[in-house]
Amino acid sequence: MSDQPLMPSEVRRKVLSQHREIEQMLSELEAGVAQLGAGSVDAGQVKRAAYALRGILELHMTFEEAHMVPAINEADGFGPERVRHLYAEHAEQRQELDRLVDAIQEAGSAVDLASSVTKLANMLRKDIEEEEREYVTEKLLRDSIIPTDTFGG
Ligand SMILES: [Fe+2]
Ligand SMILES: [Fe+2]
Q1: Of the bound ligands, which one is closest to the alpha carbon of residue 89?
Q2: Tally of domains in the chain
Q3: pLDDT in tens, 76-91
Q4: What is the model's pLDDT at position 55?
């Protein structure tokens, strides 16, 4: 992960693309669970995929905190308030993610596994949707235009 400052439009593009990747992983996880009975997928594979997803989500949230937070903070007068809200949401998401991934690891039956995977996928899709509505917008993450007509009327 690079520490180079990114333009807000670039941050937006990257966050959106990470969200699409996460959604793709969720669909694959759900497809895996749906095939549990068919013998081509076993519970261990689903559990490992859920574990890998948690790692990717941690990287994603760290990316947002490193790059999206500074851009949002500067966007307008509500920046600091939005940043506080985003951190509170991430804290909640980390807790919920740990709880659900643990439930997936400990699932003793295909039904338990499927139910925890469904909860995880629903939670993450909802979080992504809300985040894109509240923060990952063109209005908040746009490259600032430096006024050029300082001496104009
Ligand atoms: Fe986030
Ligand atoms: Fe996100």
Answers
A1: 1
A2: 1
A3: 889 999 999 999 999 9
A4: 96
Range of the domain at 108: 8-134
DSSP 24-93: HHHHHHHHHHHTGGGTSS-HHHHHHHHHHHHHHHHHHHHHIIIIIHHHHHHHSTTHHHHHHHHHHHHHHH
CATH value at residue 68: 1.20.120
Residue 63 lies in a domain: yes
Distance (angstroms) between ligand 1 centre and the Cα of 18 equals 10
User: What is the Cα–Cα distance from 31 to 113, expressed in whole angstroms?
Assistant: 13
If you measure from the C-alpha of residue 8 to the centroid of ligand 2, how many angstroms do you get, rounded to a whole number? 15
Please indicate, yes or no, if residue 148 is contained in any of the structural domains.
no
Q: Is the dihedral of CA 20, 23, 27, 33 positive or negative?
A: positive
90, 65 Cβ separation under 8 angstroms: yes
